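Can't attach files on this board, so I'm pasting raw text. These are the components:
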Amino acid sequence: MTNQIETPLYERFAAKFEIASLQSGNEHLRALRQEAFDIFRSTGFPSVKNEEWRFTNTLPYLKEAYDLEVVTSELSKEAFDQTAKLIAAHLDEVQHSIKGEQKGAYRLVTVNGRINNDLSVLPDAKDLKILSFLDAEHEPAFEQHFGAIATVKDNAFTALNTALYTDGLYLEAPKNKALDRPLHIVNVILADSAVFLQPRHLIVVAAGASLEIIETVITDKTTNPVFVNGVTEIAVAENAHFHHYDIQTGREGIRLVHRTEATQAAGSNYSNYTFTLPGADFVRNNLSLHLNAAGLESHLYGLYLTAGSQLVDNHTEVHHKFPHGESNQLYKGVLLDKSKAVFNGKIYVYQDAQKTNAFQQSNNILFSEKATVNAKPQLEIFADDVKCSHGTTIGQINKEALFYLQSRGISAQSAKKMMVNAFAFDVTEKVKIPALRTYLEQLIAAEMSKHEEA
Amino acid sequence: MLSIKNLHAGVEEKEILKGLNLEVKAGEVHAIMGPNGAGKSSLASVLSGRQNYEVTEGSISLDGKDLLDMSPEDRAREGVFLAFQYPIEIPGVSNINFLKTAMNEIRKYKGLEAMTAKEFLALSKEKQKLVEFDAKLVNRSLNEGFSGGEKKRNEIFQLAMLEPKLSILDETDSGLDIDALRIVSRGVNKLRSKDNAFIIITHYQRLLDYIVPDFVHVLSDGKIVKTGGKELALELEERGYDWIKEETVS
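---
Top answer:
Structure tokens for the assembled complex are below.
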């Protein structure tokens, strides 16, 4: 065990695994869990000595005496009522901000990572298969993909999730099917005490299918610490399209580490839109795409608006393995207060991946002298006939532009809001669902209003 | 309307305006001319409240209200308008939304109702026509990709929309070809009235052929050293500024 920081949490996970491994039934899954846990055991939680975590110290977030056994299959009546209320308020707020622009979306509610059918409004199973892992174990596509996409090697958090997840959400868009409306996944987090959650999703988009998913978060009103170590595996088959929107809001006490890893087949399109807003203490997103065939495209759009003493870290990896692939990456950050952001974007162009187009752009504005950004593009290119570019900027708000707006009678506060919306526009305009775009613009404006002194 | 008394101001310890006095009444057009570095643009900046200027002495009042205590937005709401020498490009902020926000914030300050979209549109059309501003530019991002002339015309269009009491045109003629200069001047002339006033800052007499001033002031080394009628501008064009410097020294 090298460099392991001796956290009580590490010891407790080790003890938990000993017990859990005795209970597991499925031989294949047991082997998977064992392998994953061995990795976690040998590396432990990453420290800042690990290059991938250089600017992100997770230790302060791992000190709590988290409850590791929080998942219950059924909600108590109180918890159910509380959740229903939270969802109703959330949907009201969404509807209010979009003024009924959206004719509706299907709704899938998870509570601490578990599907809740009673609170969900689901599409027909022939259009989209939605199962808990416990019910999905024998689905052929589940057996094929589960644990085969997410990389556990050198990823302690993913390894830990793989070793000890209790249940998860399995989605399968059948061949050539397209839902008539987006699916809104509402992830509810309830914490009576400090809890450590390990949600897991597997999303399979079969050949020719297309899917739009919007994920949002609802939290309870406490400040109990919650560590969410999530993993989402995604398989996008030939000519399938998947637009995946992740709206990360939260509250004080929430710490989130999430790995989204996707494999893509020929002619497919996977587009990820990650919006991180103030609220959670800490967010680390790992987004990793494997372009496993020729002629496909991937889009990675990110916007982070950070405030308070928040730390938001986005790590992306795009693996171009075959010729004629195209990837497009645009991440933008607006930092307020004492917040800190990290962007690290890796593009690998393998030797066979000729005629690859890979672009990456990361732009940041510091709104405060106490905010920090660490941005690092990383390109490793082994093919010789490719078009690749990257660019990173870190700037401050343009004072002359601000003065220009003020000199026309616009308050400094409104002027800043206009400029932030304008800065974010390159990313928000990529959102394909108009109502969602409106909602996001409202969220951004509302957050800017909360930070009058920004 | 505007009263500037013994104004001393500068940037980072360096004094640029050194005891400037100026009185502007409603209905008047004042031209301020002077050699490079005399402090012409600094005067515009101080009037509009640009942040990096520090006023060390003196006063500026607009209809009796102390301007120096106000934020740039409040000065604008009180009726001060600066047409920028270098208008700023702001990608992603639409020209029309920007103007609408500005107008409504000014109206709110004055205790007026916000304009409806329809009223605003009608007004915008009328003013576009008045100052000959291309309708296509109205819906674009603020000044983004505009030519030099288009930017200056946009300044005049904004002026027409916001109807300020006091407009300061800071080197509006710089970088304009003769046609653009004519259009800009025509716009300004149409906007002149007995209730508003203009301060026209320029290096050259050319603009004053089109916008005829009531007074011409020569600014040199941070002070107004000579004031005359429109004929002073012609004399300056002919003889340059050196003779005035000599005159003031002797």
